[in-house]
Amino acid sequence: MSYRNNPSNMNNSIPVVYADSLVNRGGTGVYLRRLLEGFIQCNANVLAAAAKRLMKPSEALDADLSASGILKVFHENITLPSLVASVSPSIVHLPAFAGKPPGGIPCAVTLHDLAFLANPSWFPWLRSVYYRLYFRRVAKRADVLMVDSDFTGSEAVRRLGVGSERIRKVYLSTESMQLDPEIFRKSTGIRDRYILFVGTVEPRKNISSLLTAWQAVSQEHPDLKLVIAGRWGWGSAALKDLLRKSSGVIWTGQLSDSILKSCITGAELLVYPSFYEGFGLPPLEAASAGVPSVVTPAKALVEIFSEISNIALNHNPDSIAGAILESLDTVYDKKKLIEFASGFSVKRMAEEVLGVYREFSK
């Protein structure tokens, strides 16, 4: 369905969210998909702009959004602004900090984290420079910044110079990740008990410390495996080699949605040793399947998961190993974990985002 040049829709002054980032394989794509699913549950009057069209959220989720790279950038910065301006929206939402809103229309931007400013060395140098230049410009022109945590809000004030009056906290969400563990086991042939890391393999995630910690854990639990479920992002060749060759470590690469859910459900424990997060979805997703987690003392992880996670004293291998071993000897209340995660539903997130939109309704 096309909404362009339709007079019956041009007077509605409804919000428009840029949705080309549904093609992203990482966290921004997951966030956007869940946001649109939440809008559907709320029966929200919102349009999604993607693939040179304006669509209902349900249509965007079903659309063939194959554009990526340069073509995606072209759509978000050249094609979509004039298309979106044609329906006079009340606000334009950039959920992945990418794209160009039409002039003269309020703009909301979702900021997931500022890791590229906290430690540029965690990123390839060209990407780091691009982020530092581009994000400052986008943040400056935004009427409101939606952040994933109080910590990210404080980072926006400190590192981007954004006034606190422009910041709105909206925690991320999860769907239920519970699914028969046999799906993962049959697809991979893994029959051993395992602990799990989920995420893109990149320097910020502190995988090297996890692999060192694993040596101590495996000595105490020789029947256990460490599963690393995530695609390779960037990092040293030595780390990639270590992932492939470490005893008891199984690197699956990126998994499909169903196999990932099954993998999480069957884990004894999720370990998330990241140095820095704006929220940190994997511990929440694990909780939704009744699986406990170990996290490091990154400020956002402590803010959100201190109630349900075992927090390592430090980011070093000894601290991570100690927290893992303690957690493996602890009996967790699965019902409490699932109940905690249910407070972070996609509908709740969508309702809070809609509340931000309403601040700019005409």
Question: How do you describe this structure in short?
Answer:
The protein is α/β, with parallel strands linked by helices.
Keywords:
362 residues; alpha/beta; Rossmann fold; 7-stranded mixed sheet; 6-stranded parallel sheet; 16 helices; disordered N terminus
Tell how many strands the DSSP assignment holds: 13
CATH topology of the largest domain, what is it called? Rossmann fold
Tally of contiguous helical segments: 16
**Low-pLDDT stretches:** 1-11
Silhouette: globular
H-E order: HEHEEHHEEHHEHEHEHEHEHEHEHEHHH
Largest beta sheet, briefly?
A: 7 strands, mixed
> How is the largest sheet built, in terms of strand order?
3-2-1-4-5-6-7
Strand percentage lies at: 5-15%
Classified in CATH, the superfamily of the largest domain is: Glycogen Phosphorylase B
Radius of gyration: 21 Å
**Number of spatially distinct domains:** 2
Distance between the termini: 25 Å
Shape-level CATH architecture of the largest domain = 3-Layer(aba) Sandwich
Helix proportion range: 40-55%
Could you report the average pLDDT, rounded to the nearest whole number? 92
CATH class of the largest domain: Alpha Beta
Structural class: alpha/beta
Characterization of the model:
- The protein has 362 residues and is an alpha/beta fold.
- The chain has 2 domains: 7-173 and 345-358, Glycogen Phosphorylase B (Rossmann fold, 3-Layer(aba) Sandwich); 181-342, Glycogen Phosphorylase B (Rossmann fold).
- Helices cover 45% and strands 14% of the residues.
- The protein has 16 helices and 13 strands.
- It has helices at 7-10, 27-42, 57-62, 69-85, 115-118, 125-141, 150-160, 181-188, 207-220, 237-245, 257-265, 281-288, 299-305, 317-328, 334-342, 346-358; strands spanning 16-18, 47-50, 53-55, 92-94, 107-111, 144-147, 167-169, 193-198, 224-229, 249-251, 269-272, 293-295, 310-311.
- α9 (207-220) crosses α14 (317-328) and α12 (281-288) packs across α15.
- The model is unreliable at 1-11 (pLDDT under 50).
